[in-house]
Amino acid sequence: MTTTGRFTLPSEENFAEKTKELAELWGADAIRNSDGTHLDDAVLALGKKVYSAYFPTRAHNEWITLHMDETPQVYLLTRRVLAETGTVPIALMETFYDEQLTPNYDADPARYWEVVDRTTGAVVPTTDWSVDASAGVVTVINATPMHEYTVSFLAYIIWDPVEMYNHLTNDWGDKEHEIPFDIYHPATREFVFDTFAKWLEDNPATDVVRFTTFFYQFTLLFDQRHREKIVDWFGCSCTVSPAALDDFERTYGYRLRPEDFVDEGCYDSAWRVPRKAQRDWIDFLSGFARENVKRLVDMSHAAGKEAMMFLGDQWIGTEPYKDGFADLGLDAVVGSIGDGTTTRMIADIPGVRYTEGRFLPYFFPDTFHEGNDPSIEAWDNWRKARRAILRSPIERMGYGGYLSLAAKFPKFVDAVTHIADEFRDIHERTGGEAAEGELTVAILNSWGHMRSWMAYTVAHALPNKQTYSYYGILEALSGMRVDVRFISFDDVIADGVDDDIDVIITGGPVDTAYSGGDIWAKDPTLAERLRAWVRAGGALVGVGEPTSQWFQGRFFQLADVFGVDEERFQTLSVDKYFPPVTPDHFITADVPVDPAAREAWERDGYRTPLSGCGGGQGRSPLGGIDFGEAIPNTFPVDERVTLLRADHGQVQLAANEYGAGRGVYVSGLPYSAANARLLERILFWASRNEDRYAAYSSTNPECEVARFPERHWYCVVNNTDRPQSTDVTLPDGAAEHFDLAPSAIAWRAC
């Protein structure tokens, strides 16, 4: 087994000897500096490939302090203020952090700001409000009492959000705040390129320029108590300027409103059904950003260096899954590995020579402190990533932060030694090829391919109460024996469904980009094409509130396919009848069943009445499945539906025959081994591939199998920190038994 290579080690000043020791132990062939650190000559002399973090639009306060009107800008929305009289004063910065943001009074507020009566939605005429810059207050006159008012205003970003986060996390104290700058302004743009040209001359030892990242920060805004206030990893709010807005108007023929950015306080979240203005701004911004990224990449190549993009920080505008990304000529993309989904987000990016994952934990004092065991997070992070790497490999791995902190934790050092060796071994055995996928699964939403592996996300790899029921589906798929692609509703309307797709998964909360919003009412073509595809033998899986839009007496517009709809209190006078829960089915074959509950359930004929529900509604005793946040009031559209799980008057899992095809409804599926197994069985059943399921499947859901037929290997991974045993069924029906240590991987010839 190779014990060197494919590993990037962070280092810092005055740490050469320990860097050398850990580089040998972990097999590092490259060294990088992290934010706030530098590599000294002794570290450079170790003879490793050198990555240098480069920040094109920060860390040059000597320039931007002389041009403070050329910092990035953002539209902010004040809190809602109630008018009790005809005059309403509204404080601009009351809920924002004034060390990060300051209002832009330089550009004419009457042209670039907006006051809105939030009770009616009407824009207040500019003659009815005025700005007092010295007080930071907008005063509205002729207001309607008992109406609420807001101001949408432009603000300069005067502290780089990521450097600010690092500053606060590491308690950098009196360290000067780094001020970001916006290259949309010609003078600052030329400063950026002139500075980079000089940097290339002054850094001959650098082999890889690790751009961290380029020009525009994802939305990351803080409140007056230094807490994160608005976080959107896809947000384009921090990209505006009066010049860009004026150029957009000239290019697209219409003018954007502040409301197109603050969006009623939603700040253009990717969860919102995308509007024309939002899509047009992304196109406009990415065109400008990519043109200048290409210039930096070409300069790097001309200097004999590779150009690597960090998928984080100022990544907005690069759009790695939007057509044309390969034209930038980037050598590599590196990104933070939070779980399997974010691993795939990096690994699946087209048009670069290689991809690299920055694993967790980051070597910062919030994790590396006395009394904590960072190795626990390291192993957990590796297990999550490994599932995805087997399905879509990244070529390199590494860590970030202060190496001097990590070196103080021997157990962590040992963990990384093992992880790095295992990462290289996977590459040796597989040749860097992906495991075989047995089905092709498409995720259908408003964004499609442009947001591959980015659906259901708010902050990077941090699902929350409202998202985990959906995000878990991506996490399950990231390491499943299927090939995954992302398609949009517009794709289906224009071109139908590709012939090689076996299953489509769609769903999300109502009125979001993931369920589709009013597209179901506006264009019948979408429902027509999907119905025809399923009836001809396709498979459609709906999650949560799929195809939801109240229209023509239905809420799930494809309820006939799923066999399930949701009561929206419009048809309460129409009785709903639940068929008995089906106790045994291919989909639920691996779900544990409590014997006592099963016995009582069987005695009752699978029709146990539930509290508060009418007779005939049943709850199955299936254990181990977490359906996430409840979707209340879902019901079978008729009694031909196969009900697999119901609880208190709501359907959690149902299967439905639909012509030659099949539909499945599931109310939610947070990630767990049991849920991933359930989803896998759903996909094979829905696509009528039950006969292909057994071969190379594991009897233990905590263990998964990946097969590499061209390399004549298959492996079994233990995705837990506990010993596990499992049997793997072979194509001839025989079985191989595995006893796996915690986090282990075992290889067999095939």
From TrEMBL:
Pfam families xref list: Lact_bio_phlase, LBP_C, LBP_M
Domain Lacto-N-biose phosphorylase C-terminal, first and last residues per copy: 696-747
EC class name: transferase
GO molecular function: 1,3-beta-galactosyl-N-acetylhexosamine phosphorylase activity; 1,4-alpha-oligoglucan phosphorylase activity
Species of the source: Bifidobacterium stellenboschense
Domain annotation Lacto-N-biose phosphorylase central: ranges: 440-691
EC number: 2.4.1.211
Name of the protein in question: Lacto-N-biose phosphorylase
Keywords: Glycosyltransferase, Transferase
Gene3D superfamilies: 3.40.50.880, Glycosidases, Golgi alpha-mannosidase II, Immunoglobulins
Biological processes annotated in GO: carbohydrate metabolic process
